[in-house]
Amino acid sequence: MTKTRKQIRVKRDRPGPLPSRKAGPTVSTASDNGTDGSGSMPASIPILNKLSSLDVDDRAWTASAIAHLAAENQQTRQLLLANNVIGELSKAMADPNPEIAVEIIGALRNLALEDEVNILEEMKMKNVFDLLLSHLIRIAEALLPNQIQPDITADEKAVPLYRLAEQCLLLLLSFLQFSEQCMSSVAASSSILNFMIYASFPNHNIPTPVITASLHCLNVLADDAESSLISSLHESHPDLITSLLDVASEGSYGFNAFDDDNRMMVRVLAANLVCNLAAARESKLQVFTNAVLPAVISALSSFDLAGCLGRGAELEKEFEIDVVSKAVNGSISNSGESAPEGDMVEDERQTYAEEVSPSGKVLKAQSAISVLESHFVTVHYALELLANALADTSSSDWADIESGREVCDIAMMDHSEAIEQDDDASSDLMAQVMTQSAPTLVPLLASLCQLGCLRISPSPNPACLSSSMQGTRVRALSCMETLTMGLDKSWFESKNCQEITAMWSWLADIANHCSSTDGGNGASDLESVESCVGVMWAFCRGLTGSSVQIVYTDQQLDALISLCTYSNNPPSLIIKALHVLSLLVSRPSHMLQNKKVGLVLLALIGSSSPEVVFEALDAIFDVYADASFDYDAPVFVGMGFLKRLKDSVEIVKDKVKNVDRKKDKWVGLDPRDYACYSASDVAVP
User: Fold this and answer.
1) Distance (Å, rounded) from C-alpha 682 to C-alpha 685?
2) CA-to-CA distance for 259 and 372, rounded, in angstroms?
3) Is the pLDDT of residue 416 over 60?
4) Dihedral, CA atoms, 451, 456, 459, 460, nearest 10 degrees?
5) Which H helix or E strand runs over 593?
6) Which residues form the SYO1-like TPR repeats domain (predicted)?
7) Of 562, 572, 471, nearest to 508 (Cα)?
8) How far apart are CA 246 and CA 261, in angstroms?
9) Fewest C-beta in 10 Å: which of 134, 260, 472, 482?
């Protein structure tokens, strides 16, 4: 029996990149049977028929209108889907005009805004993915470095193709996140891979949106330690890794600003790709220090949160027209009003301006809000990168494996112990780096954690950015939890009582805000509460034995108790809350609070979750193992805790039977320890 490192690829939900336009890309030859899955041909709405018009301007206007209709709301998307819009768009992908193809792909991307899995499955069945690959191959051939001008803005051929390439890559990203089979198909295409690699070079004068889309795709492809792309890039393109490292560490080539092109996203994605590529050949600590930390700190410190929220509140005032209802209920011509002027046919521009001039203001506001949302998405990526790096570098990632050769067990165990010692040394170094970076990271994360909680952050909360704010808070709290759990005790001890009390107070306020009915965001709010309690646990652990003690209120104690006693809460939240409680009351002169928490811990032994039972037993042992505390005699002895523990042994034994002892070999020790509690202890009569 020995231990070995096992790299596990975790499929994570990633916030989808926000397009600069509600459009999409790709040109191809399509064939589709046009059926709705039941063998019958659905009736087509008139606007879809215009996709096959002989008039180029008519096709352009129609493609733009469908792209925007697909992004309006679920009702509109369902109407389009019921009329075989995917089949019609698949046929239209053969359009030779790149500008029309951009709108066609944009429509396909917008259709997958909700219920992405089913929509992408239908697209794959109707040949969209295969057509997309063929178009990307043609785009790669057309955009070879020796066929375009050095200044892409002056090359009339390259500009529309790069727009098309951006949208194609973003649609491809959806397929890569959707299916392992799609990933294999892309990895097998050298033309597409070479184009993505070339487009990812920050010094190749590629438009920023194309660089961003390429890095998104490469990150997904390289998100597996066993990916052949990793070794290929190391062997064939070490210069790419060097360039991306320069961008990640220093923001080279100007990729360090939250502008309309969101160049900061390139820096964050570069850091993530370097992290994936270098982890196999360099120490994780080195990658974390040289790539992850500089990129994340730059992204979080450069993000103008107050300005973003203020701008969002201003833009909300400009939404005086219900664009959604207009798109659903209006005529076809009105449905096309949202189309950018560049995509409108020339002879309709004047009519557009005269008849629907008010919506121009709304369209402009929509575009501005999309930019703000894209900045939030960049922050989300930075926080996710930080959380993954912290979790990866601070955990050993060990997995037990069966050797099948008992004769070598002793040698294998010795080897395992040596590896574990090296890993412990690496963890110690990581803790030092985390502690050194904490003075910078903690304030940045704290400001994002408090986002949307009016009691402690009175900044404006524009409804148009509510989803972005919610996602930011959840990710920031998760990062704060992972960071504080890995900090050295010296960081906590360096804080004075006022600083600790202030942080404790806003953590409690956020938890109360998210657990109240005012939050109204279900799973996300519960995740925020759990992260808050996790940070509280880290503070309690870090301050154990120090002169600084956490000052808490009875209301906060009751709130933590309610988290433990509410049966619908996940076991992970209950476990964190019970450990916070046990540490808070394990101090002199807290007899009443200790009694209240002790009864809760005893009650948790009857929990249906084995994990909660075992953690509750651990907490009881931690709190009451030392008879010298002033609460031991009146609480543990006076309340008959020992008898209750003995009575619960059989209950615990039944729960132990359902636990895999190979994974939790110490699981049976706790009840035996309590049952054999020393009768000679001075506190026991």
Assistant:
1) 7
2) 10
3) no
4) 80
5) helix 591-604
6) 463-664
7) 562
8) 20
9) 260
Give the pLDDT confidence of 621-677 residue by residue, as tens digits: 989 888 888 888 899 888 888 888 888 888 787 777 766 655 555 454 555 554 454
Using the Cα atoms of residue 186, residue 187, residue 191 and residue 196 in order, give the sign of their dihedral. positive
What digits encode the pLDDT tens for the residues 444-478? 999 999 887 755 556 678 888 888 999 999 999 99
Distance CA(600)–CA(607), nearest Å, equals 11
User: Average pLDDT in the 587-592 region?
Assistant: 87
* Centroid of chain to Cα 237: 28
Rounded to a whole number of angstroms, the CA Rg of the chain reads: 29
Q: Is it the case that residue 411 has pLDDT exceeding 70?
A: no
Q: How far out from the chain centre does Cα 384 lie?
A: 5
Per 3-state DSSP, the chain is made up of helix, strand and coil in percentages (nearest 5) of 70, 0, 30
Please name the residue ranges forming H helices in 395-457.
409-449
Class of domain 12-219: mainly alpha
Model's pTM, two decimal places? 0.79
CA distance 189 to 116: 25
Rounded Cα distance, 273 and 200, in Å: 11
**Are the CB atoms for 91 and 52 separated by under 8 Å?**
yes
| Integer Cα distance of 461 and 558 in angstroms | 29
Residue 359: per-residue pLDDT: 54
- Checking if the pLDDT of 92 tops 80, the result is yes
Tokens 């008519």 — which residue?
58
CB-based contacts of 207, cutoff 8 Å, min separation 6: 152, 162, 166, 261
Number of Cβ atoms within 10 Å of the Cβ of 194: 14
- Tokens representing 118 are 């089913």
